[in-house]
Amino acid sequence: MYTLKVEAAFEAAHRVVGYPGKCDRLHGHNWVVEAIVEGKTLDELGMLVDFKEIKRALQAAVDTYDHRFLNELPPFSEGINPTAENLARILYETLEKHPIFLRDTRLAGVRVFESPKTSVLYTKD
Ligand SMILES: [Zn+2]
After folding, report:
1. At the topology level of CATH, where does 2-122 sit?
2. 23 CA distance to ligand 1 centroid (A)?
3. Ramachandran region of residue 67, left (φ > 0), alpha (ψ -120 to 50) or beta?
4. Could you say which DSSP state residue 15 is in?
5. Share of the chain above pLDDT 90, in %
6. Ligand 1 centroid vs 43 CA: distance in angstroms?
7. CA 69 to chain CA centroid, nearest Å
8. What pLDDT sits at residue 125?
9. pLDDT-based confidence at 68, cuts 50/70/90?
């Protein structure tokens, strides 16, 4: 089994509505997102999947949120708090629809860092 990891970043503001503390206030993060990809079968070049393909898909997914106020964007504007947990799941659900993952390669997880020391890993299981 091979495990690949590709990273992208974006900057965005959010509010954790109802949080009993300062996270309820408007503030921002330099979010870092990792896509973790697994598979067993290499292509004729010896690659599981081209890093560039994953990077492009991940960048497109995070660009939706770059320099935005997350609470104003769907699905967060529909009552889902834009926590790192929800963001990781939504990015996972967005990315897994990419044609790369219709082949033998599987999206194993998405990790969202709210800061260098705090992150959430979402996996489907
Ligand atoms: Zn925050």
Report:
1. Tetrahydropterin Synthase; Chain A (3.30.479)
2. 6
3. left
4. -
5. 94
6. 40
7. 16
8. 80
9. very high
Tell me how far the alpha carbon of residue 6 lies from the centroid of ligand 1, in angstroms: 23
Residue 93 pLDDT more than 90? yes
**Residue 111 three-state SS:** strand
Q: Distance, CA 56 to ligand 1 centroid (Å)?
A: 26
Inform me whether the pLDDT recorded for 19 exceeds 90.
Answer: yes
Alpha-carbon gap, residue 111 to 102, rounded angstroms: 21
User: Cα(72) to centroid of ligand 1, in Å?
Assistant: 15
Calculate the average pLDDT of the chain. Answer: 96
Q: What is the whole-number distance in angstroms between the Cα of residue 73 and the centre of ligand 1?
A: 16
Domain edges within the chain: 2-122
The rounded Å distance from CA 9 to ligand 1 centre is 15
